[in-house]
């Protein structure tokens, strides 16, 4: 029979229709928004602290460029495998593990004493955050009726820019 969510709302069992229209979906959307804002705070920290890191570790501009781009390499590379893990193990497990891992990779950056350690942690951060947007899309598809999915996607995507807008001044304040 396949996935009932792919066949349209007319074929979704009544209990699923009721769950989709409950107010719980807005709590889920709030959590997606917050997680997305945190993801972007997480990504911004290196750019804000770049000059201090460069001075502290004695890095040249090319090395700093590698550090700043390391996140993007593994993030892009792991999008498809992250989606596969999500399909196989579900959003709760994959997103939970992702949140824990990317928080740890961010925390451990504080203790990096050389280029190699920081580079590895930035690669790990991109790896750990890669399931974020596939998870957000999957959760929106599961919790929101089709006519509300664009709105829900817009809300969690706004978290990117709210995270950047709030994080950047806060991170500069922390740095000083």
Provide a compact summary of the structure.
With 176 residues, the protein is mostly helical. The protein is 81% helix and 0% strand. The protein contains eight helices and no strands.
C-alpha termini separation: 59 Å
Q: In percent, how much strand structure appears in the residues?
A: under 5%
Mean pLDDT: 86
Low-confidence segments: 1-13
From N to C, what is the helix and strand string? Answer: HHHHHHHH
Major pleated sheet: none
Alpha carbon gyration radius: 19 Å
Shape assignment: globular
| Proportion in helices | over 70%
Number of helices: 8
Report the count of strand segments.
0
Label the structural class: mainly alpha
Can you give a write-up of this model?
With 176 residues, this protein is mainly α. It contains eight helices and no strands. 28% of the residues are buried.
Layout of secondary structure:
Elements: H1 14-20, H2 24-57, H3 61-77, H4 79-89, H5 91-109, H6 115-129, H7 132-143, H8 149-175
Helix pairs in contact: 2-3, 2-7, 2-8, 3-6, 4-5, 4-7, 5-6, 5-7, 7-8
Which descriptors apply to this entry?
mainly alpha; 176 residues
